[in-house]
């Protein structure tokens, strides 16, 4: 490339393609012309370039003069009967256009500040929509949390009522173990509930739920209620009733928590098990 | 006098007052636009069609002319687009093979009487070689050569029409001339 070439003698870049082209087509001012002519006297590369390019230019002009110069100019026919729609009437003419074409017209006709303002408006509207959607999701989440809290409160009330139903002997110590909710939480329906022991002196009324240590022999939804003699540790009566499978609670409804008194009225076909067997399995784990 | 008005004033009058003012613009630029189209398309009939379509397209879009560029620049852009559209159509129809053999025979060529048959043949061959060399250039380089040689536009005018810097125009012309020199040397014809 001739753009930057160093003179072998002076080691200075002098050749420039723009100068060569400008010189060939005679578009240099006097000052530039004097400098370049002086340069060409010492640069054979630029001199050769100027010579060859000048010959090519003359050849192309020769071709133009030979093949084009004698051609007649075509008669241009303009349909003047079709009036040009003034700029202020373009809007009415384009009424039948769809929204996309109108949008394109807006961005081609309006100036840069208006385009910028329109772009910012679109961005602001989209951000507002996103904020609104995110905010509504948070509100829904709050509603769900409130309803879960209501369910938990109801469950706690039920467990406290269950603990009060157990008769107690004053001489014996009472173990008040915080009852855990009988009904599993909606999101942990498959979780294995824990052992809840409500005791009073003399007799233990144990509300046993299925836990991991029990090896899952019974269904998760079995509810066992056993009365154990504390001194002997033997089960007086263990009543098991299989409850229907509890589905996940709907946030719009409140589940009816079965009361402990309901289990007092037992059917005859209940299955009795030995509570000691259960504890034995617990200890083995 | 209409002839004393600038191109921009004529466009404004054509839009607001009388569309016939556009005729003066046609008279001023039809030859140059035709030269551009002929140089780009190398065929007289196609060049005439492209010129006609360019001016009709300009007339229909007069109201959209915003005055940010010169009318001449605007007309040249329309003409170049018309030429490119025509070239794409010709390419898809694959008529170039037939046109190559016919164009050289159907060209109107009037040679000076003093030229001998041998000189005439040599001249024809050189012209054909130059024509082929120019048309083998890439479109952007060919456009600069045509504008410079056929329309005799200045570098500044070419930069306005093509909407590129002045140095880019000169650089493209330099590259085009170098490629033309290589192609003509390949054909073993002495340019001088």
Report on the structure:
The complex is a heterodimer of chains A (285) and B (192). Chain A has 285 residues and is of the alpha+beta class. Chain A has helices spanning 17-24, 30-40, 44-67, 90-93, 99-109, 112-164, 260-264, 275-284; strands spanning 196-199, 203-208, 222-229, 235-242. Chain A has a 4-stranded antiparallel beta sheet with strand order 1-2-3-4, with no helix packed on it. Chain A is elongated and about 120 Å long. Chain B has 192 residues and is mostly helical. Chain B has helices at 7-16, 22-41, 44-60, 71-93, 96-106, 117-135, 139-149, 155-162, 166-186. Chain A binds chain B through residues 17-18, 20-22, 24-25, 27, 52-53, 55-57, 59-64, 66-68, 70-71, 73-74, 76-80, 82-87, 90, and chain B through 14-16, 19-20, 22-23, 26, 30-31, 34-35, 38-39, 44, 48, 51-52, 55-56, 59-60, 62-63, 107-110, 126-127, 130-131, 134, 145, 148-150, 154-155, 167, 170-171, 173-174, 177, 180-181, 184, 191-192.
List keywords for this structure.
heterodimer; A: 285 residues; alpha+beta; four-stranded antiparallel sheet; 8 helices; 44% helix; elongated; disordered N terminus; B: 192 residues; mainly alpha; 73% helix; 0% strand
Question: What is the topological layout?
Answer:
The complex is a heterodimer of chains A (285) and B (192).
Chain A lengths: L16 H8 L5 H11 L3 H24 L22 H4 L5 H11 L2 H53 L31 E4 L3 E6 L13 E8 L5 E8 L17 H5 L10 H10 L1
Antiparallel strand pairs in A: 1-2, 2-3, 3-4
Helix pairs in contact in A: 1-3
Chain B lengths: L6 H10 L5 H20 L2 H17 L10 H23 L2 H11 L10 H19 L3 H11 L5 H8 L3 H21 L6
């Amino acid at each position: 490339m001739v753009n930057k070439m160093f003179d072998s003698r002076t080691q200075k870049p002098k050749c420039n393609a723009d100068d060569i082209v400008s010189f060939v087509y005679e578009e240099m001012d006097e000052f530039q012309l004097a400098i370049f002519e002086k340069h060409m006297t010492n640069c054979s590369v630029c001199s050769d370039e100027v010579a060859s390019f000048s010959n090519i230019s003359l050849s192309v002009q020769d071709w133009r003069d030979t093949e084009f110069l004698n051609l007649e100019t075509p008669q241009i026919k303009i349909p003047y009967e079709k009036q040009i729609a003034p700029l202020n009437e373009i809007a009415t003419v384009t009424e039948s256009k769809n929204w996309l074409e109108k949008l394109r017209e807006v961005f081609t006709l309006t100036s840069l500040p208006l385009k910028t303002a329109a772009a910012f408006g679109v961005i602001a509207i989209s951000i507002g929509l996103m904020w609104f959607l995110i905010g509504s999701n948070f509100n829904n989440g709050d509603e769900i949390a409130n309803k879960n809290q209501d369910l938990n409160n109801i469950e706690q009330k039920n467990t406290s009522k269950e603990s009060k139903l157990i008769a107690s002997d004053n001489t014996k110590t009472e173990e008040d173990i915080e009852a855990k909710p009988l009904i599993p939480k909606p999101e942990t329906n498959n979780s294995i509930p824990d052992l809840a022991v409500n005791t009073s002196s003399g007799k233990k009324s144990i509300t046993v739920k299925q836990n991991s240590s029990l090896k899952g022999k019974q269904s998760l939804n079995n509810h066992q209620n056993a009365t154990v003699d504390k001194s002997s540790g033997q089960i007086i009566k263990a009543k098991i009733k299989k409850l229907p499978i509890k589905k996940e609670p709907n946030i719009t409804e409140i589940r009816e928590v079965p009361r402990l008194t309901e289990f007092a009225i037992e059917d005859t076909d209940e299955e009795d098990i030995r509570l000691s067997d259960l504890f034995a399995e617990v200890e083995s784990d | 006098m209409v002839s004393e008005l600038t191109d921009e004033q004529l466009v404004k009058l054509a839009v607001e007052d009388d569309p016939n003012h556009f005729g003066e613009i046609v008279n001023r630029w039809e030859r140059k636009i035709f030269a551009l189209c002929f140089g780009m398309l190398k065929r007289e009939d196609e060049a005439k069609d492209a010129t006609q379509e360019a001016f009709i397209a300009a007339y229909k879009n007069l109201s959209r002319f915003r005055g940010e560029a010169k009318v001449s620049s605007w007309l040249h852009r329309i003409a170049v687009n018309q030429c490119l559209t025509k070239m794409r159509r010709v390419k898809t129809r694959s008529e170039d093979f037939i046109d190559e053999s016919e164009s050289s025979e159907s060209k109107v060529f009037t040679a000076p009487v003093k030229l001998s048959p041998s000189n005439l043949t040599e001249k024809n061959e050189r012209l054909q070689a130059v024509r082929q060399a120019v048309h083998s250039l890439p479109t952007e380089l060919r456009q600069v050569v045509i504008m410079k040689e056929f329309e005799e536009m200045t570098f500044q005018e070419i930069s306005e029409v093509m909407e590129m810097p002045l140095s880019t125009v000169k650089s493209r012309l330099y590259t085009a001339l170098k490629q033309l020199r290589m192609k003509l040397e390949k054909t073993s014809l002495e340019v001088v």
